[in-house]
Amino acid sequence: xxxxxxxxxxxxxxxxxxxxxxxxxxxxxxxxxxxxxxxxxxxxxxxxxxxxxxxxxxxxxxxxxxxxxxxxxxxxxxxxxxxxxxxxxxxxxxxxxxxxxxxxxxxxxxxxxxxxxxxxxxxxxxxxxxxxxxxxxxxxxxxxxxxxxxxxxxxxxxxxxxxxxxxxxxxxxxxxxxxxxxxxxxxxxxxxxxxxxxxxxxxxxxxxxxxxxxxxxxxxxxxxxxxxxxxxxxxxxxxxxxxxxxxxxxxxxxxxxxxxxxxxxxxxxxxxxxxxxxxxx
Amino acid sequence: xxxxxxxxxxxxxxxxxxxxxxxxxxxxxxxxxxxxxxxxxxxxxxxxxxxxxxxxxxxxxxxxxxxxxxxxxxxxxxxxxxxxxxxxxxxxxxxxxxxxxxxxxxxxxxxxxxxxxxxxxxxxxxxxxxxxxxxxxxxxxxxxxxxxxxxxxxxxxxxxxxxxxxxxxxxxxxxxxxxxxxxxxxxxxxxxxxxxxxxxxxxxxxxxxxxxxxxxxxxxxxxxxxxxxxxxxxxxxxx
Lengths: 281, 239
Description:
Radius of gyration of chain B: 18 Å
Oligomer: heterodimer
CATH superfamily of chain A: ABC transporter involved in vitamin B12 uptake, BtuC
Helix content of chain A: over 70%
CATH topology of the largest domain in chain B: Rossmann fold
CATH architecture of chain A: Orthogonal Bundle
Largest sheet of chain A: none
Number of domains of chain A: 1
Structural class of chain A: mainly alpha
Shape of chain A: globular
Number of helices of chain B: 10
Number of domains of chain B: 2
CATH class of chain A: Mainly Alpha
CATH superfamily of the largest domain in chain B: P-loop containing nucleotide triphosphate hydrolases
Order of helices and strands of chain A: HHHHHHHHHHHHH
Largest interface: A-B, 31 and 40 residues
Distance between the termini of chain B: 49 Å
Order of helices and strands of chain B: EEEHEEHHHHHEHEHEEHH
Helix content of chain B: 40-55%
Largest sheet of chain B: 6 strands, mixed
Number of strands of chain B: 9
CATH topology of chain A: ABC transporter involved in vitamin B12 uptake, BtuC
Structural class of chain B: alpha/beta
């Protein structure tokens, strides 16, 4: 098995996949804690479907660089969605459901009507489940991903205390002079960037798992925000790395393997949490 | 000059006014209780005072050089907070957030002051405990310690004793009174008229009739006596 692994790691695309996978897992888990606590678990799901729709439009328009369209559209939707959380007619969860299903349907419709690709269902499948795209990354994409990830981590560390304040009690933060709306906007933009990045890794259907599972696992074990954040990052990185390695060895699809490992880790954390009584039910 | 002057204020939801033409003022060192029937808009008034809602008309004028980031606030608890994984220290420190500006981390002075405020509230032993494992009274003390980090001047409290048992309620009231004696202005929503009259220096009664004045003026007023009779009647019909 070790021989097989060393053989595979001689190929640059395997190395790229591992680097990108670990970076995306790290970023998504950092924001995951905030999203879960703000009751926005499904925003990842909604936004990834929007990204899918945008990608379909980009394909139809024959854009050379899909990111030019996908990233701004997703960022815009994130801002709209996080804003509806407060006081609008349509409640946050229904807004997410509407936008996500709508974008997905329109995206698929457009691809069907205008597609020039000979293998349409293959294209759709790989966008939804990210099946092989992570193994076809170019060096340029890896560098882009590394830069964006570094930026996300840096912003998260610098704004950590502010993100905590806004997550724990938005009303208090606003009342005492913190520009909470600005930080909510920042969170929305970062989430959108992470989701567009993560589409390569697990595809748009499984992104929520990457965001939610590590955070929920960590919350079973720790009782402080810092503890939960660090633990969730560690769990996410370990799960992503082992998921990628397993999928290479066993020839399973990358995205679903990572999510399966995440589920396993969650089960383990629930068990450990129960045994040690670290957190109250 | 008054710490806070409210002039001809109208406030409400979605362009529907709950109350119009409200006038009152709060001086430094006052203990003001806002009382009134359920649904009379006490919480909405407080949110308007805090700038969380736009007033429909009228003015809220801060005096004595009171800045937005010098106000302490004890909101009603939200569902999100009930199972939030955060230690007591993390929550108390977050009270300084309004003063840090773009500085990413808390400085030594703020950490020391947070420690001091936890001592004042008698929760320093719980500093590393998870918030969701605390009792209701302890949680309120944590939020009060956080509010003290945000202010030295004025505290706005939204029903700080709701859901607490009688013994803890009395402790909480005494704690708030001692803060008032230290010179912090208190503005508190309460639906416990008896305690409001007992502890406050001024009363603002809102609802179908509006009253603002000192405690003694309130006890002598028609609004208060009508209210007390109504309370008595509802108690007798209940039994």
